[in-house]
Amino acid sequence: MKTVFSPVQLAHDPKHEISDGMLKPAVEIPSRAEIVRARIMETGFGDILPPEEFGTEPLARVHAGDYIAFLESFWTRWTNAGRSGEAFPFVWPVRELRTKPVPDHIDGLLGRYSFDAGTPLGEETWFAARASADTALTAARLVAGGDRAAFALCRPPGHHAHADFYGGYCFLNNAAIAAQYLRDAGADRVAVLDVDYHHGNGTQAIFYDRADVLFLSLHADPIEEFPYFLGHADETGEGAGEGFNANFPLPLGTDWPVFSRALDAALERVAEFSPDTLVVSLGLDTYERDPISKFRLKSEEFLRLGARLEKAGLPTVFVMEGGYAVDALGINCVNVLSGFEGA
Ligand code: FKS
Ligand code: ZN
Q: Which residues contact 293 (CB under 8 A, 6 or more apart)?
């Protein structure tokens, strides 16, 4: 299968993040993408193509216009306010506080358009996030055009980004943008299966009231893991979308036998839904040695994950999400993809 990747995605190069309530070295860093690209080249897995430029329109099918405008204009506003370096929000419109009118002040804007302080926003973030979304869109276009599967080597990741706020290292929801693109390109039903260690809260929220996109997520139980405030099993969709959202929260320490049982249950739901296309939010942070996560998948088991996804028999767009054990990330990621191809 083909891989899509743009070096523009490397320009987002955060130095720090607020994690565990402390300022720490950033973990969502450019070398994550570089190591995966290197592994694809080393193993001769397949061609790597640059993304096409899709412009704002397919982003605006998923994200609010004012949010896109905020991301685009952020650096100018930030520097005009006399600020420098990477930005962190620190005040949010929670519960009784109002989201409208949108503040003029840069700190108000940062809080309005984010949900955590763990996601550094810098000079190049918008360009990298846009390139990452273009990467997902290009992979979706390949699959819409008849390729059995394609791999979007996305970075920054996307699945925590909501229609109008960022967080969890995510700015534009690449998987949701790809799923919506596939719908607009003629697919009647699209399933998004999220196998990242963290719940895909953004993707869930974007499609929560819709019956045309089924969202399923396997992840660490939010009662004890980020993003904490979404991802429980009783979130099943609302309105027309009732029954088209499925969460599989799993305990810390989950290993392949536990993970694969949940995966089978999720894929059964996918089969019932009978989508035209499958989008996989591919997080590799379920790995046993991931530095920020607590599942226990082994490198060889990612081959089995890929093989199991192939058995669903669907045209498949892989969209990379998390994974922070950088030295093993190339191996683990390409294991999923080559497991899918039966290698
Ligand atoms: C817990 C700190 C939690 C935030 C974790 C964000 C995870 C991001 C991700 C993505 F795919 F989006 F990159 N920090 N001690 O892996 O889900
Ligand atoms: Zn994750």
A: 197, 198, 220, 285, 286, 287, 322, 324
